[in-house]
Amino acid sequence: MKKNILLKFIQQVWNEGNADAASEYIASTYTIYHDPGDPWDDMTLDLEGFKTRVLKLRAPIPDQYFEIQEIFEKDNCVAITWLWHGSHLREIADYPATGKRLRMSGATVYYFEGKHITGHWQITDRLSVYQQLRQNSASQKEKE
Amino acid sequence: MKKNILLKFIQQVWNEGNADAASEYIASTYTIYHDPGDPWDDMTLDLEGFKTRVLKLRAPIPDQYFEIQEIFEKDNCVAITWLWHGSHLREIADYPATGKRLRMSGATVYYFEGKHITGHWQITDRLSVYQQLRQNSASQKEKE
Q: N or C end: fewer C-beta atoms under 10 angstroms in chain A?
């Protein structure tokens, strides 16, 4: 079942941060079909490129965690809706680390070829993250 | 098939703006479980409340259209990913109408009880809409 493969991929690669494990899950190329705000939006990556993306996206929020809400499977794809949270431990888009918890929600469709993931289409509520970054940075400055 | 019911609902109620047609599709109550930025987020509406929501959300962008990308069905729910576009013809969040095209993408899970929709969980890339509103309003001012 592609569903189970996807859940293991999310857990090992994104939740535990084991970028090397991606080699078990992704196809020889991985395309980001749609992911507004993602620096790799519209790009096709090889395994090394994909691992770099995982490491760079996880670095400022190393304890980030995707909590799956719903999961759907059909033909060659699996869709998930998710809540995400993690601690802001390194600079993000010019906002210095505050150590505070960030929360976001989103939905992703993963495309498969056989047992391997060939890419994704994703929407995240990135506005809410900027609102939290601004608010946390303002309350940090008030304390100083 | 719940999938077909949902596609008719989207077409008639949201794309054609026939709010009255909602009575055929929604249950006696409709809950917005999660929809960051939606003024009715976290609320449970009756039929009249739901129609009001449709009319208010469609009013500033009366030709708005949801173009379905993927559709998934399981148990009691249907998930869709979509691209949305429409012309900005009345004020939105203090941004005066420019007549310009707005575009957004999103994903929605609709929950069913039998043939009726009982609510939804939704993510939209609302940041991109604010970016377009700001940009359109700035280029309008430059012309004046």
A: C
CA-wise closest residue to A110 among A26, A14, A46, A53: A26
Residue A125 and residue B123: Cβ atoms within 8 Å? Answer: yes
DSSP A20: G
Cα within 13 Å of Cα(A86), Cβ side: 24
Contacts of B95 (CB under 8 A, 6+ apart): B88, B133, B134, B136, B137
Dist. CA A31–CA A23, nearest whole Å = 15
Please state the pTM of the whole predicted model.
0.96
Given B37, B81, B126, which is nearest A107 (Cβ)? B81
- A21 CB-near residues (< 8 Å, 6+ apart): A9, A12, A13
CB A125 within 8 A of CB A105: yes
Cα separation, B14 vs B12, whole angstroms: 6
Tell me the two tokens of residue A109. Answer: 């469709």
Per-residue pLDDT of chain A (144 residues; tens, 9 = 90+): 999 999 999 999 999 999 999 999 999 999 999 999 999 999 999 999 999 999 999 999 999 999 999 999 999 999 999 999 999 999 999 999 999 999 999 999 999 999 999 999 999 999 999 999 999 999 888 887
Strands (E), chain B: 26-34, 44-45, 65-74, 77-87, 101-113, 116-124
Contact B72 A69 (CB under 8 A): no
B2-143 placed in CATH 3.10.450.50:
yes
Residues B100 and A90: their CA atoms lie apart, in Å, by 39
